[in-house]
């Protein structure tokens, strides 16, 4: 009876993954859905796509596993985080498309907030920088733009949520309007120190608290699924935003442990224990997880473009047909060429936070071709990761930092990218046996809460390395190459 269903709702696809009692994957189902770009810098999802693809992959995964719904002890949910939805409490229908975390439409409003001197207050309370990335300004935009929305919200007729809340609402037939502390911490409305929605910030954005979900621990009772969905009510017992779920799945439970997840973007999370660390290097202070009412904090750095740079090679300039080709191409690239790609396609994330920056390539020659572009693309992810780690080292002064970096996500399977990452950071890179760490983290929360999976200490002991990459580049070469990257970024920022 120790089967757990993990629902992993991401930026470009939804997945249902069934884990067995031994915490190994039994079956997986995945479904992609379209992205919508109404204007330059705007990114939206159709909320019905998020729900339909999640429900479909959940059913498919259970069926593939040869199980019945009654065999599933619990559901764990992990999700793209800051993406913002508003829906009618009575009908359950959204009043606007979901505005995706990548969306930059509120950049001007964020600039005004900073100019008006609000950023310090917001950062002190939420741990976040004022940026379009987070949910609050997206929510304000919807309330400002949709006719009658603000009035309806003040009457309690509308509900706001990140994707986890939207899925739980639909899974439970509207019985549960809830979220967990990690998702709440990414809205720019939640006081991570007091553990509650900030009335001050809600007032600043004219957001009624009546439309906000209840905030619970990551392992908690989030409701039961409708019986008609799967033929049996299943308890939802675990929820965490995708990067926090990956932190849990990587068993980064001790202060100083750090993981890096490579999906569409790249997200580095450093466990700082029970003390929130205020960053002086434009990193985010956030909640890594919350159990038994006690938050564990983290420093986080976000790169907007990681795996997406490989998608650009495939779909944008069409130099590859499939992502795995990049490894072979990079290995055959001309060693005398040293292209530097700064993939600021949607601006630069941490530690720069330059939303208006745009991408550039430096060092091209007449002979630069697909192999050189592929190598530069993979290496850009390593350079950006080092930027984040250097910022973290500056903020986190304890000596107990983990000497290795735990990696996961699609790009973690690329040996060239991981070897370069180890080379450029000058430290070991550990790739785990289970690369589906995000889904595993959500599953563990649910399984542990259900009493069918081990506790934190026992789970950490199960974590195992598939391969460790160690630095092969000498220190002088490392410093020279990283200095070139720094000059390239400065050139991009200067345009």
Characteristic terms for this protein:
495 residues; alpha/beta; Nucleotidyltransferase, domain 5; seven-stranded mixed β-sheet; five-stranded mixed β-sheet; 22 strands; 22% strand; globular
Describe this structure in words.
This protein is α/β, with parallel strands linked by helices and 495 residues long. It has a domain at 3-242: 2-Layer Sandwich (Nucleotidyltransferase, domain 5), CATH 3.30.420.40. It is 36% helix and 22% strand. The protein has 17 helices and 22 strands. The strands form 7 sheets. Strands 16-17-15-14-20-21-22 form a 7-stranded mixed β-sheet, with helices on both faces. A 5-stranded mixed β-sheet has the order 3-2-1-5-13, sandwiched between helices. The protein has a two-stranded antiparallel ribbon with strand order 4-7. Helix 11 (307-316) runs antiparallel to helix 13 (370-395) and helix 13 (370-395) crosses helix 14 (415-425). The longest helix is centred in the last third of the chain and has 26 residues, at 370-395. The radius of gyration is 22 Å and the shape is globular. It starts with a strand and ends with a helix. The model has no long low-confidence stretch (mean pLDDT 93).
Layout: helices, strands, pairs:
Layout: E1 3-9, E2 13-19, E3 25-32, E4 44-45, H1 47-64, E5 72-79, E6 85-88, E7 98-99, H2 107-115, H3 119-126, H4 135-145, H5 149-154, E8 158-161, H6 163-171, E9 178-180, H7 181-184, E10 190-191, E11 196-197, H8 199-205, E12 214-216, H9 227-230, E13 236-241, H10 242-249, E14 258-262, E15 266-273, E16 284-291, E17 294-303, H11 307-316, H12 325-331, E18 340-342, E19 360-362, H13 370-395, E20 405-409, H14 415-425, E21 429-432, H15 437-450, H16 456-462, E22 465-469, H17 475-494
Parallel strand pairs: 1-5, 5-13, 9-12, 14-20, 20-21
Antiparallel strand pairs: 1-2, 2-3, 4-7, 6-8, 10-11, 14-15, 15-17, 16-17, 18-19, 21-22
